[in-house]
Amino acid sequence: MSRRAVTLLAGAALVSALVACVTNPATGRKQLIFVSQEQEIRLGQEAHPGIQAEYGAYDDPRLATLLQEVGGRLAASSERPTLPYTFTLLDSPIVNAFALPGGPVYATRGLLAYAQDEAELAGVLGHEIGHVVGRHGAEQASRGQLLQGVLGIATIARPGVRRYADLLGAGAGLMLMSFGRDAEREADGLGVRYLGRAGYDPFGLPRYLGVLDALADARGQVLPSWLSTHPDPGSRVATTRGLATPVLERMRAAGTVPRSAADEFLPRLSGLVYGDDPREGFQKGATFHHPALRFRYDLPEGWTSRNTKQFVASVDDEESPTAQLVLRLVPRETAGELSPQEHAAQVARKNPQVTLQGTSQVVNGLSAWLGQVSIRDSGGATQRAHIAWIRHGGLMYELTGAWSQEAAPGTVSALERSIRSFREERDASVLSVEPAVLRVELAPRGQSLESICRARASDLAAPCEELAQVNRVEAGAVLETGRRLKLPLRQHPMYP
Ligand SMILES: [Zn+2]
Predict the structure, then answer these.
(1) 217 alpha carbon to ligand 1 midpoint, in Å?
(2) Mean local confidence (pLDDT), 230-235
(3) I want to staple 406 with a disulfide (CB 3.0 to 4.6 A). Which of 39, 130, 262, 322 is the partner?
(4) Which residues surround ligand 1, an ion (CB under 5 A)?
(5) Is 188 one of the annotated active-site residues of the chain?
């Protein structure tokens, strides 16, 4: 859950019905575009602040500069070099990149962590610039897809996303946006082209596509947008390799040494935040802590939580839950300065199918309204749940505890105890929790990643298979001397 508000506006509503069939300068393809270049630029620029607000820019000026430099070099070599490109590193562990019409390009810190050299980062950015140059977003806008598909939503589960990918479902938003197979193929081709023109190793793109392929296989994690519509992402690796081969030959013939810059690149990743950021909420034992928002509450024994931008959902059983507790931040527009009781009255007034029964109370020193909610669904059945609204730190929290008939005995009272355990977080060790960060180190002589994982198990913040993917090595193989390893290290004893 995040303090950042979701404030994306449907800027695409401004799209006018000005039809233009234009030939794209990069692809030679005729496109039916309803938006002028000015409108295209405006679409992207209007959405940009919302994306920054939702995901947050990653706060590291050195890496921001790196992204600008690499992206700027590629954009300058494109067929639309004068667009107002921006390159923003987003504070998300999800491995992804995307672009908006007219120039804004984004990559996540998760994507950066998996890159092995500058050419791979350049490959990803080149692909995204390819979408901008190919006017794929503008084409979508022209088809009206941008309205519902892109600009209206921008939210995604962040922590725990690996385990809960399937629960994200619809509305996961911009990060999962995809342009479709033809547009992806076109962007891949342009990406390879720009790599070559900007002096980068053109195999940077197929190499990173290979990483995405392996990630999708290994984890079934949320697929990056540019993979999600492709039944066979591996074929894109082969296709882009085929495109890169003649580009590399031409570069060599012209006497250009293709740039990869692994030795410069990897040390720049030292200090990069890795994985979920526990400051945005984490479960430790049977307690959910949110250091940034300074609250905690206890869960029934054995429950697990999933923490998204919008809510924290805890269940008794991940496979087949019979009961759940959901904590949600009531939007400021709704809660305003209302007391919990006034808010409850407002909810009842606005939702005729909802019946509330409860009282104002003080819970652990916080002003609250606790009770039961009954919701009549369209079929006439009634759902019952515990519900509470609690004021804390100027915000209004809603906790809902629901159960099914299959729930274990005692679940109903356990849910109520959990709700009543909501309190201010005062534990200094929780409030000072730090995320894991990457350290880039030289591999010790004669060791394998597996032996390093065993020796440093208490410091390492990710399982060995994940480290093997991050470093592109076989876990059991002896590492070459002088090889640089990216190791995510715990910085704090509370790190979950
Ligand atoms: Zn793409």
Answers:
(1) 19
(2) 61
(3) 322
(4) 184, 187, 226
(5) yes
